[in-house]
Amino acid sequence: MEANIELKKTLARLIPEWNKDLRAFVKENGSVKADEVSIDQIMGGMRSIKALPCDTSYLDAMEGIRFRGFTIPEVREKLPKPAPDAVPSPLALWHLLLTGEMPSAAAAQELEEEIRRRSEVPAYVMDAMRALPKDMHPMTQLSIGVLAMQKDSVFAKKYSEGMKKDEHWDAMLEDSLTLVARLPVIAAFIYRRTYKDGTVIPADPKLDWAANMAHMMGVDNKDYQNLCRLYLLLHSDHESGNVSAHTGLLVGSALSDIYYSVSAALNGLAGPLHGLATQECLNWILGLMKAYGGRTPTKEEVEKYAWETLNAGHVIPGFGHAVLRNTDPRYVAQSDFGAKYLPEDPIYKTVTTMLEVIPPVLRQLGKVKNPWPNVDAMTGCLQQHYGITETDFYTVIFGVSRALGITAQAVWARGIHFPLERPKSVTTRMLKDIAAKSKAGAAA
Ligand code: CMX
């Protein structure tokens, strides 16, 4: 049954207006230059080239992320909460990402109900996942689980039946609602099957989407429920140029449906320079503590261990960023949580020591553009405290969260008819010719 909720009605009102406005804007200003591209950028992973429209969030190098214009403290204050003392539900943030409007408490609750209604995962998806080896990386299992659901894509079905272009966003939203509803069920299933006895814990109808994920994983602790809400909110969206979001957008630009897009995005998130850094970072911290008999190491010991890592040719996970040039506010939000709920935890104390020691070490390297901690530096420490000790599961939780941003961007991409992505390649010979001509021009 199709959704008949406030969220969808808001999008049905906004998308045609935006479309009209954007078309007129591009028609009038299409030839205005938004950026220039240097050889450094072409050879450097297209770093910072302004080439993608994205309205769900914006990442300022110094300030960090804003979701639809709101900072992290602002969304935490303004979004409806499942309980007065709770962190807001990430689904309320999803509503904001999708519409640009703060949902009322009633609209947020309605969305929770819609999601609950769609959360049953088809038996064939569960069977496909049960056929996978238990020691397959949980991210691979997640990506396969998402891809298996493609069979029931509303977008793919309607497209094959000749759906009109103006209806694309609606079909994308339908699939997104279903995907988001089922993701925590699949993630919890992977967790229980890979690390526990495989018993499936059914959802609790009294709990919101994020708290239910904790419950289905087998952790019924109010503080951990709040951590789940916070985590799933913080990791949801980071503009559209990061590897996972961009992969989702790129795949979707071929009019592939949301299951293809998100499965591909998860494969990018699984890389050690992106989402896998969460796992790598905690493993790094545990290795550091193990080297000192399991206790919280001193500053000198952290520094020594950091240099050993760098001298062995490895990066220090949890530090640095492709865009940020300051401490990640998502790190700060998690660190504040740690300070409140687990100040005496030895791993938490180690991470706070790292915050003092690692940035000066990275500065000494002389090439790291951002020596400050990113979101992944604190995540594992908090998860570990509540008994989620299986580090290779951490990126799965990241993936559940990131799906919120990717789906919000995908609905809008179809809404504004974002076309097939097709940047142009150049050979390195051509780049050398361009450089030579530029030098000759300057000398003339
Ligand atoms: N430790 C050691 N060296 C680092 C470093 C770190 N934490 N961060 C950057 N560098 C190095 C780079 O490897 C690069 O070295 P080379 O020139 O020898 O290749 C140099 O410093 C310049 O890199 P940069 O411009 O500062 O950073 P990039 O935009 O190239 O890369 C990132 C960004 C995140 C991949 C990098 O900082 C890194 O590898 N960090 C550790 C892994 C990590 O925490 N990833 C998670 C990021 C957040 C996320 O996406 O989830």
Features:
single chain, 444 residues, mainly alpha, Citrate Synthase, domain 1, Cytochrome p450-Terp, domain 2, 2 domains, two-stranded antiparallel ribbon, 20 helices, 2 strands, 2% strand, globular, binds carboxymethyldethia coenzyme *A
* CATH fold call of the largest domain: Citrate Synthase, domain 1
- Round the mean pLDDT to the nearest integer and report it: 97
Structural class: mainly alpha
Could you give a short account of the major beta sheet? 2 strands, antiparallel
Helix % is 55-70%
**Second CATH tier, the architecture of the largest domain:** Orthogonal Bundle
pLDDT < 50 stretches: none
**Which molecules are bound besides the chains?**
carboxymethyldethia coenzyme *A
Q: Measure the end-to-end span.
A: 69 Å
Secondary-structure element series: HHEEHHHHHHHHHHHHHHHHHH
Number of helices: 20
Radius of gyration: 22 Å
Layout of helices and strands:
Elements: H1 6-29, H2 39-43, E1 57-60, E2 64-67, H3 72-78, H4 90-99, H5 105-117, H6 123-130, H7 138-148, H8 154-160, H9 168-195, H10 209-217, H11 222-234, H12 243-252, H13 258-269, H14 277-291, H15 299-311, H16 329-341, H17 346-365, H18 376-385, H19 394-415, H20 428-443
Antiparallel strand pairs: 1-2
The structure holds carboxymethyldethia coenzyme *A (CMX).
Carboxymethyldethia coenzyme *A binds at residues 242, 273-275, 277, 310, 315-322, 362, 367-370, 374, 376.
